[in-house]
Structure formats: structure tokens, C-alpha cells
Write the C-alpha cells for this entry.
Amino acid sequence: MKRYITAAALLLALVTGLSGCLGTLVEPSHTNPLDPSNPNTHSPVPARPTELTAVVSDRLVELSWSVGNASAIDHYRVYRWEVEGGENENYELIDTATETAYADADVRNGQVYYYKVSGVNDLGLEGEASRRIVVIPRMFSVTINQGSPKTSTRNVALRMSASAETEIMQVSNEPDMSDAQWEPYQSGYSWSLLPGDGDKTVYVRFRDAADNESAIVSDDIELDTRAVIESVTEDSDGEDLAAGDVIHFTLTVGELHGEAAVDLGSIVLDIVLYGDGTGGDTVSEDGVYERDYTIDPGVEVVNGPVIGAFTDEVGNRAEPVLAAGTVTILDPPAAVEMGTPIPLSESKIVLSWSRNNDADFSAYKLYRSYVPGVDGSTERELIGDFSNQSTTDYTDTGLEPDSTYYYAVYVVDQVGLTTISNEVSATTPENQPPAAVQLFTPWSPGSSSLELSWTVSDADDFMYYELIVWEEDPPDPPATSEKRIVARIETRSETFYTHESLDESIIYWYEVAVVDSFGAEALSNTVSGSPVP
């Protein structure tokens, strides 16, 4: 509720006039401290406050005054008029005070304010108000390094703020300004703090042309020229860890603000630690930075050192510190999936598997066993070692017909860890004799030889051709019981032969046998011929 000096004066005159007209009130219905005719209500009017002064600073007006007989006063009323252009004086009761001083923080810099103060006795009688005082709150202040809480160097930048009437100023590192000299006012000022890390305060006082001095203003900053890591720890206790496990890191520095991190060897870098009570940090802002680090899939470290790093809030970098133990994280490679083997022939099986995409891939190792259980078999043998990550198939050759074989692929990473695939098996078919070739009728280039030729064998397991001959000496029948091999040709494409040193009177009979790798053979058609005389 607003109360005004003008209304109080009017009320005082009105009540005084009525009191003179009405005389003594025997049974007053209310207590009126301004009516001396009422019993027990008469009291002297409180003295008028004098020497009302004000000290102004940033959004603050500090009033003080004097009074002749303070013991007769119960409290003071503080009135303020916030001047707006073109309006008459209009004071508002803003507060009361029990001492001869009052601080008004509900003000705006640059705004014109009028103040008056009056005294009130214990019966509520209010005395005459003081003279008015006009004030304009202004920014009397000094700011170090734009308000930063810390600095890493003694050389700082001061920013002054004062009224337009300010002409000179004093700057000091001492609170009593004993070493300060008056010098021209500057809004920007370079200053050197006292040496030694710790809290530092800069004090400034301003004076205008009328020799009015501001209160001493100050600003604080902490001088911090170095950062030191006290300790770095991890809690793996030398145990082998894996993806999904949690490591608790701590880094102790004693500084509440900064950036802390650890490197896990050269594999996992810049693991950020927390000092705000989150992420595994036990106590917020206690100078101990912590983290519960969950190991990501794919991370693999063997005896990795834990190296702590810290940069404080002003940019000081601490020397790295090594934790006492090391960390081992084992991440076996992802297994591949073998597809169904395909027997190509009685001696070949085609194998395939999915691709491993691990970044630390080293090799695929393909094993074959003659009994189930490749992983534990004593009869297994390594049939393929592939360092190319894109190699995902292989044809196993040299197998026996009608035999079952078992296979598995191991993926090996760069650390040497292995993971086995699923096991697959396949049975080679029974061996089938190769297809026979066609032997052509021989022709005689001379009286003692015959030229023979035949078609090419298409057998996958071709081993050689055998040229078989027997003789007929007319009128005797062919001596089939005396067949003999005259040539063995191991080159598939070599499908010709010259049979020499022959007799004109003899008829020579021929067959070609195709022999495969298992010894099975197929005979061609039979042809005959004699040298031409």
C-alpha cells in the first residue's frame, strides 16, 4: 500500500483542526497520537532527521542521516520518489529502518531518485521529514579479466565503471589504498597482481571534479599459475576385461574446475572424467575427477598404461601422470559363418564363409579333420591360411572318393586371439571312371610307322593316357591276350602318337585308356592298321 508525504500532511492539519473544535474526548473510540487532548496519547513530535547523505554505486543507494534525540524514535520511514518526466513530486513509502542508515538495492543505474526520511515514535506519531536528497545510482566498479574467477598470469586487465563526472582514480592491491596515487580516470587499465598463487583483490576509488569520492570498490580473482595431478588410479586389479565390463578411473588434482581425462594406452584416447557428481563421480566438486567407463565392443588393449591428463579452467596443463597398474581388455574377433560345402567331384569340395569386418583382423585359418570336432581333433590339419580379409572361399582338393571331411575357420586378430566358426562337413561322391575318348583310324606315313590320334579327355581328375597295342599275324586271329602298353602320356592335350618300327605284314590293333587320379580307367574304341609298303 502506498503512503505519501502530501497525504500525511493533509491528515495532520485536518486532525489538528478537528481536535480544536471537538475539545476533550472522554471516551475516544480510537487512539490518535496527534491528539494531545486524549489521555495517554500525548507525546512530543519526533525530531526531524538531518544530514541525509547518500553513497551510490552499482544499483545501490546507501543512505545515512543524523537525528537530535534518537532515543525518542522507534523507527524511521524511508520515502522515495522515482522521477518520471513531467510529474509532480510523488513519494512512496518503500521501507522502515531502526538504525540511521538504509540501503536501497531496488534501483536502476541512471535513474533519478529523490529520498526523504522521517522518524516515528513508539506511539506511531510521525515527525517532519528530512530535506530531500537527489541521487542517481551509477556503476562504480572494477572488474578483473571480465569477471573471470581465475587467471594464470599476474598481468590482468581491469575494467573500470564510474559516472561521467569521474576525473581521477586510485588503484591498489591493498585494502587501505595506502600505496595508491591519484591518476587520471581510465576505463581500461593494465595491472599486476601481487606474486604467489592464491586469492587476489584489486581495490579502486574514484573522485569527481567536486572532490566527491566513491566508496572503495574491489574485485577478486584467484591467481593460479600451475596445475598438478596428485594421482591417477584404475580398478581392474590386473584382471582381463572384456566388452561391457566397467573400469572406474580416478584423477585427483585438488582443483574444482577443469578438464580431466585418461588415455588407455594408444587405443582409447581422451576418456573424459567427471567432477560434477555424474558418470561415476562420487562427490561433486571435490577436486577428484572420476568415471565409470563401460568398455565398448571392439576395444582391445593388452597391458595398456593409463595416462592421466588435466587442464585447469585457466589453461594450465599438468604434467601427465601414469597410473600404477595396466589394463588388459580382450576382444576376440567376430566369428564367421561357414556355408554348406559343395562336393565338386570325388576329390574336390568347395568351401565358403562369411566375411569378418573387424578392424584388427589378421588372418583366416581353415582346418580340415577326418573326424567330427575340428576344434579338439588331433587329426585336424591346416589347409588354408589367408591374410586377405576379403578371401571367403577355398576349394579343397586331393580328397578321397566316398569320404567325409569336417571343416572349421578360425579368425585370428592382431593380438593373436582366435574365434572358431561353426563346423561343417561334406562327403565326396564315389569315384566314377572317366569318359572314354574317341580313337581315330591310324594312317601310315611310311612303311614302318603308324600315326594315331584321339579326342581330348574331359575328366576333372585326369592322370594320363595309355596307348595299348596288340598284333594280328594273318591268317592267325588278333592276339588279344598279348596286349601291351606302348605309351603313357600325362599331358591332357597331347592326343597323338607315332608308333614306329613296325612290320608291313602285321596288322596292329589299338585302344586308348583314360586313367584318372584314383586309377579308374575307360577304354576307347578299337582301331587297326598296317604300315603302307
